[in-house]
Design a protein that fits this description.
By secondary structure, the protein is an alpha/beta fold. The chain contains 17 helices and eight strands. The relative contact order is 0.09. The structure holds S-adenosylmethionine. S-adenosylmethionine binds next to loops.
Length: 342
């Protein structure tokens, strides 16, 4: 068989597969592989058909062979990642999609698949929607309001404060939040926070403002000044996906900034801090409590912590991501237990 005939056979297989005639396509791909067992395009076609008809272990086996032969092919890596995901081999899917994203950092489709593999279950927003009625905070501080989606979860009786230099609210709130159109630094420098709250402490806070490590760390520290033992501090974007989507400067659509370093820095400064990263999509949610009394201690070490962690990179974190972030599963019962409510 000439190379040309083989190419025609594979092309016809692809045409049949695109038309939904998967059995006939599979026969042609197999036929082509009988002619030349090393034809990667025929194997790719067969693997794709196997994936479509639900033969996930077979798709995974084929995809593994073709990505070994050609480790830098985006298309082959995508098939491999998909097959691993459907075959419920989450760790393999994560490794493959990360490898793909290292080669093609703008591939948002692959990043979405990586999220499915890494962080299954309800999103951070659904988790916030569960936490508000569970904790019923009388006072709430939110840093980073944007359209008001997360702020709108505060109940009608809650005294809610929103902080954002450029909010673009387009939702209806349950109560009447007090929105301060300033940066978080200006807010903490200028405002009498207990007077605004009507009590010395907040019950719940959510950090979702500027997504740089040093700013999110400062936001966390500033909040601890008004924390009681029961106060819960939530922090978005604590569980990053891959190197390109957790840089300080944004280059990708799905992006978490380098906020994850806040978790590492806090755990370094206060080894027994009551802080976990919940593995919720798209990029994790930090949850801290018992943070009263930490303000002086952390504030005194702010510059040192920024210096120590600023240049840590994703590869360092990936050596022991769950350990370094003290990660817990995205499981409501596990979260309740962590909150002492289970
Ligand atoms: C991801 S959005 C917040 C989304 C919102 N929490 C939600 O889930 O619906 C981030 C917001 O942080 C705001 N922001 C940026 N820098 C800030 C700062 N220094 N202090 C407070 N907010 C800031 C931006 O204007 C933007 O609206």
């Amino acid at each position: 068989m000439t190379a040309e005939l083989l190419t025609d056979k594979v092309a016809e297989g692809n045409r049949l597969a695109a038309a939904g005639n998967l059995d006939a396509a599979a026969k042609l791909f197999l036929d082509a592989l009988n002619d030349d067992g090393t034809d990667l395009e025929a194997a790719y076609g067969l693997g794709t058909v196997a994936l479509h008809i639900g033969e996930y272990p077979r798709a995974l086996e084929i995809a593994g062979l073709i990505t070994s032969a050609q480790p830098n092919s985006i298309k082959y890596l995508h098939l491999h990642g998909e097959a691993a995901l459907y075959a419920k081999r989450a760790e393999e899917a994560v490794a493959i999609f990360r490898r793909l994203l290292a080669l093609d950092p703008d591939n948002e489709d692959a990043r979405k698949r990586l999220i499915s593999a890494m962080l299954p279950g309800e999103s951070y927003y659904h988790l916030l929607a569960r936490l508000h009625p569970l904790l019923r905070p009388a006072t709430y501080i939110e840093i980073g309001v944007d359209r008001g989606r997360s702020l709108s979860l505060a109940g009608p009786e809650c005294r809610a404060i929103g902080i954002d230099p450029a909010p673009v609210v387009d939702v209806d709130f349950q109560g009447t939040p007090d929105i301060h159109t300033v940066t978080s630094d200006a807010f903490f420098a200028e405002q009498d926070v207990p007077a605004l709250l009507g009590q010395p402490h907040f019950d719940l806070a959510f950090i979702d403002g500027l997504h740089t490590f040093d700013q999110a760390l400062k936001d966390f520290i500033n909040l601890t000044e008004y924390a009681a033992p029961h106060s819960v501090i939530l922090m978005h974007d604590c569980y990053p996906l891959d190197a390109a989507s957790c840089t300080r400067d944004r280059t990708t659509n799905i992006w978490s900034g380098d906020v994850w370093k806040v978790v590492c820095a806090l755990r370094f400064a206060v080894p027994d801090i009551d802080l976990v990263a919940i593995k919720t999509p798209p990029t994790g949610l930090g949850l801290a409590k018992n943070c009263d009394g930490l303000y002086e201690r952390l504030n005194a070490r702010y510059n040192e912590l920024v210096e120590t962690f600023r240049d840590r990179d994703f590869d360092w974190l990936a050596e022991d991501m769950d350990g370094r972030l003290n990660a817990i599963p995205n499981d409501w019962q596990a979260i309740l237990r962590h909150l002492g409510e289970g």
